Prior knowledge:
Blueprint: H1 4-10, H2 12-15, E1 27-34, H3 42-59, E2 65-67, E3 82-89
Helix pairs in contact: 1-3
Amino acid sequence: MKGAEAYVNDQWHSSGLAHLPQGTQSHAITLHFVVPRAEQSTGLLDHICEVAQRHIRQAYPGREVSHRPVVGSVVGDGTGDGVQFVFHVSPERA
Length: 94
């Protein structure tokens, strides 16, 4: 079974991490990872979220980054293997 770091690294471009929005305003960021249903566990999904959040914080230094609760198999792509992670980045302080 792959670990969270591997999922994030392997899906860097396809998840949306490679194309984060720019600007000083607040951002809503939705990342999409493909995690086979058979491998989805609360612990793995939470860890993928933590790894992704760490990378988002690095992209927006000094800004608050929060996330919605993690839910597996929510993407309507017909496979049940897609997981969406939704983050909120606060606006840049003046």
